[in-house]
Amino acid sequence: MTIDIPFADAFQFDPSPTWTRLREEEPIARVRTLAGAEVWLVTRYADVRMVLADPRFSRAAVVKDGAPRVALAKPLPSSLTTTDPPEHTRLRRLVSGTFAHRGIERTRPWVADLAKTLADDVASAGDGADLRQLFALPLPIAVICHLLGVPYADRERFREWTELGYSMSMAERDRVDEAMVSMQAYIGALVAEKMTYAGEPRDLLDELVRAREEGDRLSEEELIAFGVNLLVAGHETSANQIASCVATLLRFRHLWEQLVADHELVPSAVEELLRYNRFSEVGQLRVALEDVEVEGVVVRAGEGVMAALNSANRDPRVFDDPDAVVLTRPQNQHLSFGAGPHFCLGAQLARIELQEALLALLRRFPDIRLAKPAEELEWRRVLVSGLAELPVVLG
Ligand code: HEM
């Protein structure tokens, strides 16, 4: 039987029971996406990891004519997320230095200061403040704008395009393509402006423009795709995860209290919350380049396979008591940043943002509470799972 994905009971706090059923009874299942494509869905940890890392499953094929689509927006070609090695390796090498562990750690004090300032804004707003709007969103937006060299003042515009780009709401279908064109035109204009600048590079887009001028094989299309990809991937997921982390900790308040009592637990708590929180209501799409057998089923060349990260993160074959939040969980090999060549470029930056966000809130608001029960919080109908609101009482 083909199941519609997102599942009918998606977009709420706890994952649909369908994930558990599929993982146990039908580890490779047929699903129909919102865009009307029939693809395979794998839900066990080992299979999810294999699909993400095995070169027989392609990202480049996702932008070919007739390829299955998961969401409403068409993926942007020539970007990190829509190329395979060796093109992918060439592109990734141009930015990997900036996001590597040692380099990106230099931003930590700056991120910590920013989190402190935003916590002041939350304090000024008082009880009922929406932590998503005042804290979770502006933090990663300011960070990625700073790194990339995108004006923070333009955030309202690129937020709207990002929301539409990730939309899983059929009502918005007609506006999605237009938003993607506007986003590319916006980055295109920014890149054109940067091409006229002759001084020392001030940010990553300046560096990429310079690399292109100095003969690196980087087309203008690839340069724009970099800008769009980094701007969007660089804030949407972090913002959602900051809000989800706080919401989970406040939903099970003893966890918040555990962290208030011991800030040293924050790094391992972040890993556990990343494992526990949902990343998406669907899976990461790949297209098979040849016939491949998975769990006794032959996936034919050209067919799509979605690798469900959230389901892998709750697989009892790998994680003891997977539905419990254990802030000190040892050997937490979650797949929230993916695996294989497309492993999240910004993983260390995201960790810094999440850790510093939590530390700032723990210090400033030890008595904070949710302003309404967690089960009543609204979720957005978008590709990357996230709360629509996070109202809090500051205590
Ligand atoms: C908690 C926050 C984040 C989560 C959970 C997350 C998750 C992921 C996942 C699962 C992938 C792999 C997708 C796939 O294989 O199909 C990915 C890729 C990517 N992420 Fe993140 N991400 C986060 C934050 C960031 C940040 C802050 C950046 C900033 C640069 C970023 C940039 C990227 C890029 C550029 C890719 C594509 C990498 C490639 O294809 O080589 N992410 N992310």
Automatic annotation (TrEMBL):
Keyword list, A-Z: Heme, Iron, Metal-binding, Monooxygenase, Oxidoreductase
Protein name, UniProt field: Cytochrome P450
Organism: Lentzea tibetensis
Family: Belongs to the cytochrome P450 family.
PANTHER family (UniProt xref): CYTOCHROME P450 YJIB-RELATED, P450, PUTATIVE (EUROFUNG)-RELATED
PROSITE patterns the record matches: CYTOCHROME_P450
Keyword Transport found: no
Keyword Oxidoreductase appears in the UniProt entry: yes
A single GO molecular function term of this UniProt record: oxidoreductase activity, acting on paired donors, with incorporation or reduction of molecular oxygen
